[in-house]
Amino acid sequence: MIEVKGLTKRYGDRLAVDHLSFTAKPGEVLGLLGPNGAGKTTTMRMLTGYLPPTEGSASIAGYDILEDSMEARRRVGYLPERVPLYPDMTVRGYVTFWARLRGIRSPRKHVNAALERVHLMDRQNQLVRNLSKGLRQRLGLAQALVHNPAVIILDEPTIGIDPQQVIEVRESVRALGKEHTVLFSTHILSEAEHVCDRVLIINKGRVIAQGKPADLRRQMEPKTQLYVVVGGASGKAARQLLSAIPGVLAVERDGDGYSLTVEGDRDLRGEVSSHVMQAGYTLLEIRQATTSLEDIFLEIVGKSR
Ligand SMILES: Nc1ncnc2c1ncn2[C@@H]1O[C@H](COP(=O)(O)OP(=O)(O)O)[C@@H](O)[C@H]1O
Ligand SMILES: [Mg+2]
Question: Which pTM was predicted?
Fold first, then answer.
């Protein structure tokens, strides 16, 4: 389990991570979805003990990353953006090396289990230097899980590998999520959708939306909002009138007027104004606004392309 409270990182006067709070439960793959520079890597480096936070706190499996950093580190596996690999080691040697580094005295069983999980057993004697990028990524994954940590943190593990390997890495991540708490970062919306149980969309170091992928997608479907102020009608009459206009999905009181949620991306300004006037009222104001989630989505997609 991961618990993060108000986690913040400043680089000089640049705020890379801005009071981030979230929890990830056992058996869950939590996605960090955000464009380049959103603060994903910085967050992960703080959680894995490579970078001290400027402010805030976090715990891994109940151990505070600052106060119990040794215990916290023992319970986390980390696949960084760029995996440090030693080209002259064999696949098996590399995973064994990491197991020993994590204090496992007789790592044989652990190494076998890790190699099985990432389907590298048949390449155990191959030299790291001869592995393709996708296979190296799987080896990095084996390194991250060899000590059977409660929490596994994977920083954009599918970047730069070929499509077949992308599918395999995604499947491995999903499988890991059944038994571990997995934090997985990506800048690709569809990848977050396929791999994660829950997604935090982050931008400029802050969570700007979160939820199950299906819920997020629903929220992000373009919706037009109309803001309308009607003169001469009682609140009840105005609400009734506006609700009855075809294409209006919802009517909510908003300051002096009403916010209308409109089906799809229809422009209902003409209809609204004629309905209001036909009923003998006056239209004091009407304007169209897009939902903030749509803005967020467009911004993220725009930057990641
Ligand atoms: N070592 C560093 N020194 C200064 N600024 C940094 C450093 N590392 C990251 N940043 C800045 O912090 C922000 C977040 O970066 P990062 O965590 O790498 O984002 P992401 O992984 O989402 O692409 C960016 O604006 C980046 O330029
Ligand atoms: Mg990054």
Answer: 0.77
Cβ atoms within 10 A of the Cβ of 143, count?
A: 24
| Atom of ligand 1 minimally distant from the CA of 12 | 4
pLDDT in tens, 64-103: 999 999 999 999 999 998 888 889 999 999 999 999 998 8
Cα separation, 155 vs 44, in Å, equals 7
**From ligand 2's centre to the CA of 181, what distance in Å?**
20
Which tokens hold the place of 239?
């609400």
- Assigned domain for 168 exists: yes
Residue 38 lies in a domain: yes
Could you give the number of structural domains in the chain?
2
Residue-wise pLDDT for 25-65, tens only, equals 999 999 999 888 999 999 999 999 999 999 999 999 999 99
Give the end of a domain, one of 192, 219, 246: 219
Residue 118 has a pLDDT of 92
Cα of 305 from ligand 1 centre, angstroms: 19
Beta-strand relationship, 55-60 and 181-186: unpaired
Residues contacting ligand 1 via CB (< 6 Å): 11, 14, 16, 34, 36-42
**Are residue 228 and residue 208 in the same domain, yes or no?**
no
Residue nearest to atom 12 of ligand 1 (CA): 16
For residue 65, the tally of other CB atoms under 10 A from its CB is 24
List residues, by chain if needed, whose CB lies under 5 Å from ion ligand 2: 40-41
Residue 43 Cα to ligand 2 middle (Å): 9
Domain containing residue 93: 2-219
Cα-only R_g, the chain: 25
